[in-house]
Amino acid sequence: MKNRRVAIAATSAALALVLSSCAESERDDSSGEGDGASGSEDAGGAEASDATFVFGAAGAPTTFDPFYASDGETFRVTRQIFQNLVGIEPGGTEFVPELATEWESSEDGLTWTFQLQDGVTFHDGEPFDAEAVCYNFERWADQNEAGQNPSAAYYYGNDFGFGEDSLYESCTATDEMTAEVVLTRATGKFPGVLSQSSYGISSPAALEEYDANGIEVQGEGFTFPEYATDHPTGTGPFVFDSFDGTSNVTLTRNDDFWGEQAGVQEIIFRIISDETARRQELESGTINGYDLPNPVDWAGLEEAGNQVLIRDPFNILYLALNPVADPQLEDPLIRRALYHAINREELVASQLPDGAEVATQFIPPTVAGYNESIEPYAYDPEAAQDLLEEAGASDLTIDLWYPTEVTRPYMPNPQAIYDAVAADWEAVGVTINPVARPWAGGYIDGTQQSQAPAFFLGWTGDLNSADNFLCAFFCGEDNQFGTSALPFQDELQEGLRAGDAEPDEDARTALYEELNAQIMSEEWLPGLPLSHSPPAIVVGPNVEGLIPSPLTAEDFSTITLSE
Amino acid sequence: MLKFVIRRVLQMGLALFMLSLLLFAWLRALPGGPVSALLGERGSPEAAADLRRQLGLDQPLPVQYVRFVQRALDGDFGISTGVFRGQPAIDIFLTRLPATVELSIFALAIALTLAIPLGYIAARRRGGVLDTGLVISSLVGVAVPVFFLAFVLKYLFAVRWGLLPPSGYQTAGIDATRVTGFAVLDGILTREWDASWDAFRHLLLPAIALSSIPFAVIFRITRASVLDVMDEDYVRTARAKGLRAPVIRVRHIMRNALIPVITIIGLQVGALLAGAVLTEKVFAFPGIGQALALGFETRDYPVLQVLIMMAAIIYIVVNLLVDIAYALIDPRVRTK
Questions:
Q1: ipTM exceeding cut-off 0.90 for this assembly
Q2: Theoretical Cys-Cys bridge with B107: which of A489, B198, B210, B321, CB 3.0 to 4.6 Å?
Q3: Nearest CA in chain B to A443
């Protein structure tokens, strides 16, 4: 017995010795062992220049190559690494020069000449020039089948398209710092689309070396090339350092940045999927900020000394009515009745965050083409009842869908919004069949496949363009509003096409103003715009210099941390 | 003994095959799917159909299953579509396994160190104040949902008093060297004591919350079992022989009383894995449980398949080991 114990003890000791002898600390000597500087409990607090800004992210980035991404968690990270030809003014939605200092188009809107910023280098030391810009344009266009899928290159597929119908024709470096881009047709989206995160300019050398276009379908998923997982290389104020696979994405300051140096040495995106946990981490000082705090927490967060920065609303929540799913909704009287029955003022005041506004049309007020003269549909239950009677639908029964397992910036609490609207409709005699579906568990499928007669959905704009909103809702034959079953479908499609194709900005704005008025007219009204909500971002008391962006396109290089 | 083990391994293979079939069909019977999770409100019917075709999700279920098995036999368990897009599902499991194992080991260690001595003491003082108190608290331990306890612990110790970190596995930016993937162990092996201590502090609250289930069960079983054994003839004989009390306690009472406890420990592994899903969610702990919850939200079939199958394998293997240990302790099991 004793012998056995001795043997076990000896074996364990030997094993421990072997394990610890092959385990060496890989820390830099400078960081020291156990000095706790880099791992101190309080995020920040160090001197601004070598401070670390820790941001609580709700999810992991899907990839580090923004070209293959379409989600906010990814773009928040890649935006710090990459820059675009066209930028967005800090805190606004206007387009401003970034890597291009200026641009002009030919009269027909087909040829665009970009003058590029001098003295810019990529993170791998390669120079930024017109050749690099054209290499990126070519790389975007040259995608294999997997890359062309909307779950991969969503934005390019949407904005330019692939193959013969592509908007992109060619790119030529006419001199070292001048790139000429030729399009196949005029569009109002260009060059504004280039301000979207997906179009960050990458180093051609890195794109080539790490096989950036080598996305593949494998089994039931996609595999991304090394460029997207380990070597994103842009010109931005921060350089990609590492992702540990589960919890932390680390970026370090680009000391060779051509613009103003970033105010912190390092950014760590700490992935904390649970919202309550994010709030508690901020309250304990272990993170410096997080996005989309729940509106019910805003007051408490501010009382604790944090700064809740409210962005200008750049989104819309609407109630779609789909006559393909329920032919009763072909009748404009019923659609109008349902709109008059909703007390939107009350809905916005009681269910949406401070600063939310009642929507009068399908685009927010800051987008060019917003029509100031559209009169909002008044809350008028009696008028609603009269209209239903006139339509012979006093006993109207309707399936009203709402999503579960999700919050969206435009829809912080879907169930509460459903409750409010359902109560209003029931008050005018409509019978509601509630249909609750998980977001990825049938809701999106059902609403897209015209199974849902009435449902809540919304949109956060990608850029200041009416087309970015309206086309997402109404373009095509089988859109989610089922407009193919309505008599104005052809006119609507023509209006959308004409607006986008108009190269002159003023003329385009006028076309969209007119289209918005038509869409909201009593005869059309394919759906019911409800509200625009301001999403917030919250940072701790010692964070300075963060400018909230309506497009949620914050630049973290302006941040400094005070003592 | 060998025959016993072989039979159990064969049973295990069959059970896993059945499970893989059920799991495969069940996941795909859930409404929605990875395509709607991938596309969100940005999808269109054509885009969704195209994606479904590319990913082979438009094929009949049996065809999909055969392909899945073929790939699995080649060592390809699928690529994540939601939890960590583009990453092999098996890698997601392997990266996250150490965190969950470390959490479970700590939870089990806490439960065992408290439950076995307390169970013994309660049995010795049957009917006393201490016994009643302990039995009541173990009832509470069974009855209180793990996530509720997790919330309360977190609120008090992390948010209110700020004694421990509210969530995570290790402080961001601590610069810890990874050797085995077990954060506490790695810190010890590399002598990065601050990293080890930091990981330990992160583990404490979730481990305490998670230990509540096995604690209550192990405590009650130990107590009942010690009560049984204390009345046995051989204990009386040992006493009559004049053996010293500590010898009777260790050799005659505890050794026999622990047999059912060991079985229970095996069964508790399942409960620990189930509890870890909830605990990891509350503490944003980057383990298997968190990936499982995330996998459901995003309908990530490959990741869900790997995680659930692996959880089943762990459960079955642990129970097999328990049976073997049981046979070693109790010779009667072998001969039966």
A1: no
A2: B210
A3: B32
